[in-house]
Amino acid sequence: MFSTIILHVLASPFLPLTFVLLLVWGVYRLQRKFKRDERARIEALWRDQRNDIEPGSKSSGPVLEKKCPDCAEMVKADARICRFCRHEF
Ligand SMILES: [Zn+2]
Fold this sequence. Notes:
mainly alpha; 2 domains; 2 helices; binds zinc ion
């Protein structure tokens, strides 16, 4: 059944047109698939980020840290005074 379709297409005087149409259709299908995959990936990323933020601190979001230049301890990025050595940033 499939081979008869191929024979029909091969015998067709519109072979180049058919080929181009198939190509365009294939590219269109591929694009739609890629877009769907990309959106799913981004949504999964957002879900992961929300899950990361929720369990710990509700207000501050993900905890960013910086290194104190005096004592080399890690303190929160928003801190103005080091909690270990009282160094002022
Ligand atoms: Zn310090």
